[in-house]
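User: Can you recover a sequence for this backbone? Please restate the input before giving your answer.

Assistant: Of course. Working from this structure:
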């Protein structure tokens, strides 16, 4: 299952990706199917996508104009590792090395092979091994923030 959401800039791209995933018989849930487009600021969309990804333990796709704003918002949610990807290599490496769970895309970017990026992101497995140690450190940064402890003190 894939969770998807976009702000107003990404409505067409979101539909394109949903159709692409449905053609591949991959379940996709659009969590931002708002009729009222005044309430679709990218921080809210990023949060809603992220919450659903954590609750359903699956991957997500979050779209805004550049992919950048929504990635910043997603990455504020503990447990989310969101990456803006503009090519297949980035999509592959962020799954393999970073265990990214949200792919962020920019609807206003030109000449982006979106379907290839999506396919690569959802089909690449996390490599684990030494990369797990680094993911654990990201989690530790989150835990320190939650507890009001300075992460740097333990370095
Ligand atoms: C909305 O106009 C735009 O700022 C937003 O989609 C996104 O690109 C922000 O990073």
């Amino acid at each position: 299952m894939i969770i998807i959401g976009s702000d107003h800039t990404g409505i067409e791209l979101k539909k394109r990706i949903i159709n692409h995933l449905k053609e591949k018989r991959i379940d996709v849930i659009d969590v931002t199917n708002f009729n009222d487009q005044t309430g679709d600021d990218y921080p809210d969309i990023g949060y809603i996508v992220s919450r659903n990804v954590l609750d359903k333990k699956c991957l997500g796709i979050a779209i805004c104009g550049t992919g950048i704003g929504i990635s910043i918002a997603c990455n504020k949610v503990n447990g989310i590792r969101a990456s803006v990807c503009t090519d297949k290599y980035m999509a592959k490496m962020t799954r393999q090395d970073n265990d990214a769970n949200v792919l962020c895309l920019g609807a206003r970017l030109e000449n982006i092979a979106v379907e290839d990026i999506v396919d690569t992101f959802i089909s690449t497995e996390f490599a684990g091994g030494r990369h797990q140690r680094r993911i654990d450190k990201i989690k530790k940064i989150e835990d320190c923030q939650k507890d009001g402890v300075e992460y740097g003190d333990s370095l």
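That completes the design. Residues 7, 9, 42, 64-66, 68-69 surround D-ribose (CB under 6 Å).
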